[in-house]
Design goal:
Helix content is 25%, strand content 30%. By secondary structure, the chain is α/β, with parallel strands linked by helices. The chain starts with 6 loop residues before the first strand and ends in an 11-residue tail after the last helix.
């Protein structure tokens, strides 16, 4: 039973937190909703930070989840630039802000997100070393890329994951010289495997990006606070005016850990362990978005997913669960990317070693195709590249766990919908 005297506190001001607050009001909750954000900007969406906004094609205002006035209009108590430093589970309070404000909660939602992993090499304190996670990072990096393009400057990117490649594409559109350093043998190796990683290497090389695979960045060389070069463990020195660390993100679990909440094993991506209702080991505390590790019986494991769709859907699901609704969160992982004239969507989960075959439907050479990661005839994941309106049948294929005819799967003339029993 939820009544008007209850207080629901949301810690974290990203997409998941904003959508959770929105859902509480949409579902008729009339109690207090307190949303605490450690950033001074209103809650915003992150994909534009490495895509349209970084390229200057989307205005700053377009990234925000709601206009600023929306929060007061819906009686959401929004605290910007405030950090929660403690949860007292016995007293059911959170402490936040410079003055140590205490607020009692009936239900608490942790959507504290993730933070960029740091390069642990000499030279990271130089002014030209960047990360990309927050709106302030994107604003700064946009100016850097414009200056590099104007002055024929060099950007070195450590990491050939999604953020690294999207920024590489943006930097080339600005006209900057780009070198990507990656310890794996191909881009996106841990997500797509070597079969599709090579395609992205070719795409970026066609646009002038240089790659250096199988090596690690060991030092950023500078003088008078200015970046001059990046060194790798094979003895190479790469010219650089700026360096972007794009080596992944770590879940922000410090608050949860200090409160004694159960965490997921690091081998599974870490994060706050939640059940199918996004409830933590404390029945009055929930978690969602990048920081939450949720069970996905379809794959027989638990996952922590750092992509936009997980925040978009996880925040509302957690809000409904907090209200006592019969909510089960079992969304398939989904993400999208845009690089140059290539757009893609990926649904499912198929890490290297989990599949025995990659089936291509369409023309990979023309970069208009769907790739399926298959194990024993069952589709684990699918990625559509410059082919649209197929996400729903791909996800039905994955969820069905049906054994499919791989020749029919590869044939563009066979409707995908007809392959699902």
């Amino acid at each position: 039973m939820v009544d008007a005297d209850q207080t629901f506190v949301i810690v974290g001001g990203g997409l998941a937190g904003a959508k959770a607050a929105e859902t509480l009001r949409a579902e008729g909750f009339t109690g207090r909703v307190i949303l605490i954000c450690d950033e001074r900007d209103h809650p915003y969406e992150r994909p534009p930070l490495s895509k349209g906004h970084l390229l200057g094609k989307e205005e700053r205002e377009s990234v925000f989840v709601h206009e600023p006035a929306w929060y007061a209009r819906h009686d959401i108590e929004l605290h910007l630039g405030q950090t929660v430093d403690a949860i007292d589970r016995t007293a059911k309070t959170v402490r936040f802000g410079d003055d140590g404000t205490l607020v009692r909660y009936d239900k608490l939602l942790l959507v504290t997100g993730a933070e960029p992993r740091r390069l642990e090499v000499p030279g990271t304190s130089l002014a030209g070393v960047h990360h990309l996670r927050r709106l302030s990072h994107a604003e700064r990096l946009k100016g850097v890329l414009a200056a590099l393009g104007r002055d024929n400057g060099h950007l070195v990117i450590a990491g050939a994951g999604w953020i690294g490649l999207e920024v590489a594409a943006a930097a080339r559109e600005y006209g900057a010289e780009v070198t990507v350093i990656e310890p794996e043998p191909t881009p996106l190796h841990g997500v797509l495997g070597p079969e599709l990683g090579n395609l992205f290497e070719e795409l970026h090389r066609e646009h002038g990006v240089r790659f250096h695979f199988g090596v690690k960045l060991t030092e950023i060389v500078g003088q008078d606070g200015v970046v001059l070069a990046a060194r790798t463990d094979d003895g190479e020195e790469h010219p650089a005016h700026d360096v972007l660390a794009a080596i992944g993100a770590a879940p922000r679990t410090g608050l949860a850990e200090a409160a004694g909440l159960e965490l997921a094993d690091r081998s599974l991506g870490g994060g706050i362990a939640v059940d199918e209702h996004l409830r933590t080991s404390d029945p009055d505390i929930y978690a969602a978005g990048d920081v939450a590790s949720f069970p996905l019986p379809l794959f027989g494991t638990r996952l922590r997913v750092e992509h936009w769709a997980n925040a978009l859907n996880g925040g509302p699901a957690a809000a409904r669960a907090m209200l006592g609704r019969d909510t089960v969160y079992d969304r398939l992982p989904y993400f999208f990317s845009d690089q140059y004239d290539l757009g893609l969507e990926y649904s499912g989960w198929a890490p290297p070693g989990s599949y025995d075959q990659v089936v291509i439907r369409g023309d990979a050479g023309k970069r208009e195709f769907i790739a399926f990661w298959v194990r024993e005839g069952r589709v684990l994941a699918g990625m559509n590249v410059n082919v649209w309106d197929v996400t729903e049948p791909i996800q039905r294929l994955v969820r069905s766990r049906a054994v499919v005819d791989t020749e029919a799967l590869a044939d563009p003339h066979v409707p995908l919908a007809g392959l699902v029993p």
